[in-house]
Amino acid sequence: MRRRSKFDLYFVIFLLVFTVAYFIYNIRTSEARGVEHYSQALKLYKGNEFEKAYHEFGKVPSSSGLKQSALFRQARCATNIDRKDIAIKKYKKILRSHSKSAIVPISEYNMAYLMYEAGDKEAKKHYKKIIKKYPQSDYAIASQYYLGNITIQNLPENEKKQKKIKENALVYFKTYLEKAPDGRFALNSIEEIKNLDTTLNNFDNLLIAKGYYANGEYEKARTYLNKTTLAESWTDFAKTEYKLGNKEKGNGYTEKGLKDFPSGVEQNDVFEVIDLYVSAAATRKDGINKLNALNLKSTGADYAAYLNCNEVVLDGKAKEACYRKLYEKYPNGQFSADSLYNVFLSKYLQKKYYDAQRLGFLHIKKFPNVKSSPAVIYYMAKIANKLKHYESSDNYFKKVIAEYPDSYYAFRAHFNLYKDDGFLPFLEINPKPVIFPYRRSLDNNLVVKLAYLKDYDLVEELCKNDKFIQSWVAYEKGNYTISAVLARKAMEDIYPKPDFEDLRWRLIYPLHYYDIVDKLKGNNNPIILESIIKEESHFNPYAKSSVGADGLMQLMPSTFSEVVQKNSIPQSFNNETKNIAAGSIYYSGLKRALGNKDLYAISAYNGGIGSVRGWFDKIIYSDTDEFVEQIPYPETKNYVKKVLRTYWMYGNIY
Length: 654
Prior knowledge:
mainly alpha
């Protein structure tokens, strides 16, 4: 009996081990088969062989993590071969899984649309469910449009009932228009509202006008604006006239609105109209002077004063007084942090360190995380150093690097902490490819798997609200400028910033043409040249500026021709290589002529060598920071900071 009992125990253990091993083996093989079939099916799908793709997607095992996306693709295939009944069944199968995957709302929306097209009353139920379960999604907004259409189908003859139904439909169309004035169904919604033939109030007419404006229908926008009052929509009147090329009329609405209607419009709309007003003048300076001559007391007064301090007032002491007055008048306004920073910096440049320090403490306390924060913390470190508070100084420098690692001031803080590394601590980098920005994702890593299989369209659809993934898709499709902009905007919303190993940084700072840059660098730092290319053209070889600068390194045609002729650049080079070669030689020349200093060469690349030489006599400075902060051309000052920040980021990321 004992022997048998022992045998039974061993048998049970063996059976358990075998079952677990078989289960693991089955999962792994089903994943491998899932990837194989999905990959093959996707190729067929992209080649418009929908029937074959449908069957191949069907071979993805049920236990595979790709099964849901395979069902989704089968539904799309069925739709494309006009088997919408089969597509609906596939979508229903996804919904029955009760998964929290992003595929579920898309599936329900697609299924509702197919039902809507077929005249199935179930569509209404699903659209309402989407609005309830996913209220912030694009699918919920689009559902409002379809519910409006469903509501007015088969109107009864009874006028009273008909009126009530039309009012309900109007709410749906207006909701869509309010949430998506530039949306796919905006113009359709406007037409449906007009067809309802109901009485429209001021708000309704303004909503229609905004919809037309957002879709470039400016004449129609004007027609509906004329049915509203100027008091509640003067910014829309002004914007529309500027778009129609009527500067005088736009200016008139702007001046009247700024003077007579101090409330009732969005602040950002006011800023936009002010920018248009300034741009309508012969020069920006003329526009800003004209704006300030209006002597505004409320709406837009702070922005007008800020533009005046920032762009018109040039004298150092007058500038400080201008910003001080602005800060004191609007201590909690949108421009107060930057105004206080400019007063603080002015005191620092005047070497009034105790006054500057007091203002710095105030800025750090009152504005803990704003655009000017890294600069304030950096100069607080320099002030502490001047006052021989060395430990405090180091702590401030380290704070800039830790909290604002992607700023120009992190680069400068690093230099001040480790001066033995020189002005440019990075001399070479190890290029790495841009890859999918996440190592793991939600949905049991479904998005990562789809990215690996290059199902870009589905990844994009599943991750509409993730700018980093949208950036990656744009990058994979070759839209490098759009990609970098999307990623940069997404990173701006993150605080604290991730470490430099994070894959998302590569989307903001990709490396293109670096192999060519490295070969043609001459005596230049190749990372600086790469940074200039990024900031000048965003790696677009066909980029052309408003003044005629051309190519990756944005050289003027005359400069390019002169450099090519003098230096015998091989004709066998393609346009991109020629542009980089000429840019590298041109940069070398600037650097040689300016004491072999990269800082001055970068300044001259944007502002011109003559300007930089002139600044040597006009600017009183004792170090790099004092020179940069006093560059009289705002564009050149920002350019220098951007190029050096990009250089710093490339060095850290790669």
